[in-house]
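During the reporting period the student researcher (J.K.) took over the structure-prediction task from the postdoctoral fellow and processed the backlog of single-chain submissions. One of the processed entries is reproduced below for the supervisory committee.
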Amino acid sequence: MADYYSSIKLERGLMGSVSYFTAEANVTGGRLHQRMFVNSPLKSAIHGKPLFYVDTYLAGHTPTVYAYARHKSNAKDFFNALSSFYEGVASSHELKGKEFSLLLNQRGILNTVPLRLPFVPNVDLEGLRFCRVSLPIGDIAVEFSPTPSEADNQLDYCVKYKKLITTLEKPLIGCDLSRTSVLASLIARLHWASDFLPPAILEQLASQLAGSAVTA
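J.K. obtained the following structure tokens:
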């Protein structure tokens, strides 16, 4: 039987021409869960499906904010996008020439290796299930699944019953947006809905949801 968040608070918004809803669950164990949906009943490919998940951990003076979304890339595409992202922000965020930590799950075996960008593959990307890249501006975590799980329209049920299923989609890419929202652009590049919405709009929506979590 599926588990649900109950007593969901809904708020409607508009980003350019994109109408959306944000759903917010009650804080549980110091964690605030929020979700964003496109509100476009005439576009069944995207209407009511989760665009972003945001978990905010409220312990301490500064909240920690993680934004997630289902992505459509394989491991090679992810590292290509990561390298491209790095080239765009390295100078402005003092990342150029630095070495980072890369945690890999290859066929169930965990391994931590140094990473320099742009990325040159020297690992078995075909067997990669999960990786985490630790950058000074925030961590990036991404999973790869041979059997993706796509959510149906969750918005209409949430509007009617004020409940939200706890199950998440897969594979997910998640970024720590606590320090800066710049990593939202990487999520947008790989987002499942980038065929339907401009990446710039997706980036703004992710940044807005993460920002609202901090001020919630």
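The committee noted the following: The radius of gyration is 17 Å.
J.K. will present the remaining backlog at the next meeting.
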